[in-house]
Amino acid sequence: MRFMVIIKATPDSEAGVVPPESLMAAMADYHGQLAQAGVLLDGSGLQPSSKGWRIRYSGSQRQLIDGPFTESKELIAGYTLIQVRSRDEALEWTRRYPNPVGEGLDAEIEVRQLFELEDFPPSDTLERFRDIGMGDKPQ
């Protein structure tokens, strides 16, 4: 089972403020523990939305919208992707996640399970995904 730990953006992360060394060390230690346990698939911080864009779809039309985006509480500042045996194991790992804004401050992370190809009924379309390696769980 794969889960994504989603770190919400803050005004500081949207301003491109680098986290303090103590927080970087705590994150490095935590991700090192995940790697040592063999459950870490990926993890990274994201650049501020001012360096990104969105594509808005309206029927067959597409509109480019350049960042920054104003609602930082709706944005993602980073993520950690893990693969574990159960929801309970994912819950245990995420309970140990360092406070993403620093100890003693209010923050929130969100955890979402990823779909696997096995979650869908068999179809020719799913076989096309398998043929190109999408949805395959890393070994």
From TrEMBL:
UniProt organism field: Rhodoferax ferrireducens
Domain YCII-related: 1-112
Family to which this protein belongs: Belongs to the YciI family.
Protein name in the entry: YCII-related domain-containing protein
